[in-house]
Amino acid sequence: MTRIDALRADERLSPTRTALRRATCAAHLRLHGHPSLAALAAGAITQEQYRRLLARLYGFHLPLEQALIAAARRHGVDRLIRARTHLLARDLVDLGADEETIAALPMARRLEPRGHGEWLGALYVREGSTLGAARLAAALDPLLGAGVLRGRRFLSSGDETVWRECCAALEDGAARGLLPEMTEGARATFEAIELWLADQNSTLSLPITVRGAAGKQIPEIDNC
Q1: Name one Pfam family in it (predicted).
Q2: Which residues contact 109 (CB under 8 A, 6 or more apart)?
Q3: 169 pLDDT higher than 90
Q4: Which of 11, 42, 112, 200 is the most buried (most CB within 10 A)?
């Protein structure tokens, strides 16, 4: 059994996390069917597709991370949040993206959890995504090469300790009667990323320029 399988087996023991997983299962499965995510999981994603996907994920995770950190400080639990969005920017640079263009990427509307329960639900989605991300990182071997961290820092950034801290916070929240709000926060976060990844109208005003290749440009990121 792998570390990820062990964590998932542990997750099945928790009624709280089982309830959250069931509440978000349909959205989770729909995301698995997203063309770029499906290609990534199959080890068949192209470099252009992957760049576009990373850019789109950056535009979602940066405002989400900022909102979660701000709310965590209000709740006095900022130790639960580990900044990771900068790793997406580094991955984009690794793949040839120009830093000015990264700064100009479109951003998703910032989620604003209305209370501690919704914040916990959003945290569950963010930290839980790192479990599957480890497998997606391994599926990049055909594109990036086996054992190469460059280009997949974000997907490789899961931390077992952080996940267990998150799980403990979820159990504490449920014990305080916050499970309905936690469920709403998790659903809202899944809905937001679904809409963001599916939005065909969010385009870049600038193409991503490949460093060291004068005049060579990657087509605009018009979807993922």
Answers
A1: Heme_oxygenase
A2: 63, 192
A3: yes
A4: 11
Q: Give burial (CB, 10 Å; 0-12/13-18/19+) of 94.
A: middle
Cα 86 to its chain centre, rounded Å, is 12
Q: Where are the domains of the chain?
A: 3-199
Model pLDDT, residue 132: 87
Is 86 in contact with 66 (CB distance < 8 Å)? no
Tokens found for residue 35: 């063309």
Rounded to an integer, what distance in angstroms lies between the CA atom of residue 39 and that of residue 6? Answer: 26
3-199, which class in CATH? Answer: mainly alpha
Condensed to tens digits (0 to 9), the pLDDT of residues 21-80 reads: 999 999 999 999 999 999 999 999 999 999 999 999 999 999 999 999 988 888 776 666
Q: What is the dihedral of CA 221, 52, 39, 131, to 10 degrees?
A: -140
